[in-house]
Automatic annotation (TrEMBL):
<feature type="domain" description="Phosphomannose isomerase type I catalytic">
    <location>
        <begin position="4"/>
        <end position="102"/>
    </location>
</feature>
<dbReference type="GO" id="GO:0008270">
    <property type="term" value="F:zinc ion binding"/>
</dbReference>
<comment type="similarity">
    <text>Belongs to the mannose-6-phosphate isomerase type 1 family.</text>
</comment>
<keyword id="KW-0413">Isomerase</keyword>
<dbReference type="InterPro" id="IPR051804">
    <property type="entry name" value="Carb_Metab_Reg_Kinase/Isom"/>
</dbReference>
<feature type="active site">
    <location>
        <position position="188"/>
    </location>
</feature>
<dbReference type="InterPro" id="IPR011051">
    <property type="entry name" value="RmlC_Cupin_sf"/>
</dbReference>
<dbReference type="InterPro" id="IPR049071">
    <property type="entry name" value="MPI_cupin_dom"/>
</dbReference>
<dbReference type="GO" id="GO:0005975">
    <property type="term" value="P:carbohydrate metabolic process"/>
</dbReference>
<dbReference type="InterPro" id="IPR001250">
    <property type="entry name" value="Man6P_Isoase-1"/>
</dbReference>
<keyword id="KW-0479">Metal-binding</keyword>
<feature type="binding site">
    <location>
        <position position="111"/>
    </location>
    <ligand>
        <name>Zn(2+)</name>
    </ligand>
</feature>
<feature type="binding site">
    <location>
        <position position="94"/>
    </location>
    <ligand>
        <name>Zn(2+)</name>
    </ligand>
</feature>
<protein>
    <recommendedName>
        <fullName>Mannose-6-phosphate isomerase</fullName>
        <ecNumber>5.3.1.8</ecNumber>
    </recommendedName>
</protein>
<feature type="binding site">
    <location>
        <position position="168"/>
    </location>
    <ligand>
        <name>Zn(2+)</name>
    </ligand>
</feature>
<dbReference type="GO" id="GO:0004476">
    <property type="term" value="F:mannose-6-phosphate isomerase activity"/>
</dbReference>
<dbReference type="Pfam" id="PF20511">
    <property type="entry name" value="PMI_typeI_cat"/>
</dbReference>
């Protein structure tokens, strides 16, 4: 049976109310993130249907590994979020697996972004305009951030792969769906001297950032592959040992063959139903669920677009 999940909302200094566009009842005016599919201890989702109703995804991962193809990894590998950057995010970098396990006790954080919506002329920071670690360190020490950060204009439908070590920031007025390794380790480089609700500046992590920045990550480096299946369209954005992420655009009906023993699904447009082994489930923009290894006969019906990922 498919596992439908209750979103977990995270409050952020840069958040807003735009997640209401997905039909969510958000808690505050600074709701920055919807964790749609998460087994991370900072926000595990709760199952809302079927025999496992009420259990959290991290509990299921521990006690019912057969739902996930008996995946042998210690932790659930991925985390799916929707972010509302009502204000610009801090400029940050994430460590790779080796550094994170040594210093943070969890995996590294390679991620990717699908731009759901954005204001005109919105931009992200992606990479650095520097040719060496030494130059990066000098520019950070001088706080010469205008010379350091590389800015890129974005538009709805764009996709960006953000490997660990890439300096990055989501700009003001952007909504994204993020697929990432299940990690919450972030090193801030610059935060625009903002203060939190208590009047304190948020911590920066300059030495850690210097240690993990990869100066070679300067430009987005994926080429989407588009395939038509009758009236339906599949776009594969990225596929590597961290994750495979793609987008299905369903016109009326799609007989879906899972490409992996279990798949993460997030509906980003439209509505319809998904029929799983003869049982129908209503789905709409903002629905998140997992097709488990037990789910065999799957059909999507309706006009809808969803992001699928697996690792």
């Amino acid at each position: 049976m498919a596992l439908f999940l209750e979103p977990v909302f995270q409050q952020r200094i840069w958040g807003g109310r735009n997640l209401e566009q997905f039909g969510y009842d958000i808690p505050t005016d600074t709701t920055g993130e919807c964790w749609g599919i998460s087994a991370h201890p900072h926000g595990p989702n709760r199952v809302i249907n079927g025999p496992y109703k009420g259990e959290t995804l991290d509990q299921l991962w521990k006690s019912h590994r057969e739902l996930f193809g008996n995946d042998s990894r210690d932790t659930f590998p991925l985390l799916t979020k929707i972010l509302d950057a009502n204000d610009k995010l801090s400029v940050q970098v994430h460590p790779d697996d080796d550094y994170a396990r040594q210093h943070a006790g969890e995996s590294g954080k390679t991620e990717c972004w699908y731009i759901l919506d954005c204001k005109e002329d919105a931009e992200i920071i992606y990479g650095v305009d520097a040719d060496s670690k030494k130059e990066v360190e000098e520019l950070i020490d001088k706080q010469a951030f205008d010379d350091l950060f590389h800015r890129v204009k974005v538009k709805p439908g764009d996709f960006y792969y953000v490997p660990a070590g890439t300096v990055h920031a989501i700009g003001e007025g952007i909504m994204i769906l993020e697929t990432q390794q299940s990690s919450d380790t972030t090193y801030r480089i610059y935060d625009y001297d903002r203060k939190d609700k208590d009047g304190n500046k948020r911590d920066l992590h300059l030495e850690e950032s210097k240690a993990v920045i990869d100066v070679s990550n300067k430009t987005p480096n994926t080429t989407p592959e588009v395939t038509k299946y009758g009236e339906n369209t599949y776009t594969e954005f990225v596929s590597n040992h961290f994750f495979t992420v793609g987008k299905w655009e369903v016109a009326e009906s799609l007989n879906y063959e899972k490409p992996h023993s279990y798949c993460l699904i997030s509906v980003i447009e439209g509505s319809g139903i998904v029929e799983v082994d003869g049982e129908n489930f209503d789905i709409e923009k903002g629905t998140h669920f997992i097709l488990t290894s037990e789910d065999k006969n799957i059909t999507f019906k309706g006009q809808l677009t969803f992001i699928v990922s697996y690792s």
